[in-house]
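Re-run with default settings, no changes from the original entry. Doing this only to confirm the output is reproducible before filing.
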Amino acid sequence: MVSVALISHSARYYSTRRLIEAGRALGYAMSRLDPVAASLTLGPGGPGIDVDGARSPVPDAVLPRIGVELAPWSAALLDAWVAAGAYSAVTGDAILRAGDKLAATARLGATGLPVLPTRALRERDHVEATLDALGGDRWVIKRRFGSSGDGVALVRGRDSARSVLGALVIGHETVIVQPFVALDPVRDLRVLVLGGEPVAGMWRHALPGEFRANLHRGAAPRAAELTDATRALAARAAAAMELPFCGVDLMESEAGWVVLEVNASPGLEGIEAATGRDLATPYLERWVAGRAKA
């Protein structure tokens, strides 16, 4: 029997629960590692993960469900199990890069994918040049790390932008600035990629008055038919980020589709509800199938 371990902080999370249910239905021996409860041993004998003073057995396959706050530690646990012989379709480095908005945008742009014009700064002296370069009178300001729309703000007018950016860079924090794209309706397209193949899509429609189309911000999920263009773009973005299992967020713009970000631990609740499909089962099947090809 194939053993599969999820790295996930809580069994109550919808996606964690669904993946465990699907894995058991497929006949896998499913378990969950809470990164908060784990400690890591390193040395000449190789890495080991301990929970409650006991060594956790190395699974055949490990599937990370990693949030931003625990990302560095969870990635270290993932890499330790992989070094000890477990299979993972993704690496800790790829997960961490996807969670870093600066590194992710740089990677996507460097591989020729369409992204929004982006400036990053950490010094007050660079505020004016940043706003001049991007133009316009509305900007989206983002912290380098964050998820679910946290640390993202829309500012209107140059005085407000100066004020917000000036406050953020006081501690030499890296801040990302992009032009605001007015949409009607306000929405983006989430594409679920499994094993490098786009398999499902959903529109995320923002609440009235909200510019962020995140489900955690109340956005409404609706089924979306993927076109050849959106399929190809999502597949290219997943490949560029070295994340064959991911959620790719796309947005329409006057210049065409752009890639907003790539999520290394895509949630299943919204897209399963929107499409009415069981996506946890193919997620597990394709992940484990990759072990035989590795």
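The first strand starts at residue 3 and ends at 7. Residues 119 and 130 are 6 Å apart (CA to CA).
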